[in-house]
Amino acid sequence: MTFFWAIVLLGILIFVHELGHFIFAKLLRVKVLKFSMGFGPKIIGFKTKETEYLVSALPFGGYVKMLGEEPGEELSEEQKAFSFQGQAVWKRALIAVAGPSFNVLLTYLIFVIVLSVGFPVNIPRLENMTPKIGAVIPGSPAERAGIRPGDEITEINGKLVVTWFDLITVVSGKSGEPVTLKLKRDSKTITLQVTPETVKEKTPEGQEISIGRIGVQRAGNGMPFHIVKAAGPFSALFKGAEATYRMCYFIVDTIVQLLTGAFSAKAIGGPIAIVQESGKAAALGVFSYLMFMAIISANLAVLNLLPIPILDGGHLLFLGIEGVRGKPLPEQTQATLQRIGLAILLIIMIFALQNDIMRLIRGG
Fold it and tell me: What is the mean pLDDT of the chain?
């Protein structure tokens, strides 16, 4: 069932994204030749007067094929009026940005639904989530092990640590058991062993439980999440917009941190991670599944707007250059840049898949 829920999630996100391109192409009188869910060979489909609708074999993607979309297509004068390349730059830009915009809209609608029924939306604050030590409690297991403020935990018992919560999750369940930490101190990597001490805490239901603590406090000020709440359905319309903005900002901030090396690239997840997390979210209930869908939808929107040729952001980049130059880039230049963009995407996908496989091997 895990794979089923992943296919459902990706199918909805892809459909919404391509629907944005499709609707705006139709509104701007551009002829759409194909609307495909998936890539590769056709499984099923039907054709109307001008558009073929189909489901293809490879489910991880989709596309809308428009008349005259590819540079160099031979078109009659009559066809050019209804072709993609025959439209003004601003019209083509609207069609390109419509896909990511519809994914943002889906995120907003889900947040409105969740907030309307009384659930909060928690948006991570990246600066307060890194596994960096802000303080070490005197006399604690951490101090005895040699952990210092400024140390950044990278692994615990061989499992990758990306956020502060990864550290808490493992340590809490290892009361009285030695754990091996790998940490970054300045430019050095250090391995230490520490035994979490047992502390008593109460659950929200009042039950007393024993958990492990090593006596460290995270770096950063404030809460690790920005909590968005709504007073009711009407308030949710506005709070949903705030939550959507904050989620998109968080994703952009994460990308910047990844590019600057401030956030570990090992945190990047691929298709295996999406399949796993889809199953987990579905098992927790409808609202958890919807929230996961909203997060992935926002990610899809932001990532598609990156200025990488072959993505929507790459198309917008080409259109911006065309607007400034007064003419498009040479076809050969566009083709070369498209190949470079495809190579970049393949490298990212391979790296993400490698991360997924390493998490499976390490059990994390």
Answer: 87
Confidence tier at 72 by pLDDT (50, 70, 90): low
Domain range list for the chain: 2-116+287-362, 130-218
CA atoms within 13 A on the CB side of 336: 5
pTM score: 0.83
Q: Is 18 a catalytic residue?
A: yes
Sheet holding 179-185, edge to edge: 159-160, 152-156, 179-185, 188-194
- DSSP labels, 123-163: EE-GGGTS-BEEEE-TTSHHHHHT--TT-EEEEETTEE--S
H or E stretch including 36? strand 32-47
Domain 130-218 has CATH 2.40.37.10: no
Specify whether the CB–CB gap between 61 and 15 falls below 8 A: no
Dihedral (CA of 291, 225, 261, 337) sign: positive
In this structure, of 52-56, 249-253, 275-279, 309-313, the range with the lowest mean pLDDT score is 275-279
Using left for φ > 0, alpha for ψ between -120 and 50, and beta otherwise, residue 68 falls in left
Residue 363 DSSP symbol = T
Reference 134, options 218, 224, 223; nearest CA is: 218
264 versus 124: the higher-pLDDT residue is 124
Instruction: Give the pair of three-digit tokens for residue 254.
Output: 């994460």
Give CA angle at 222 (220, 224), nearest 5°: 80
Options 18, 69, 155, 277, the catalytic residue: 18
Residues pairing with 5 in the sheet: none
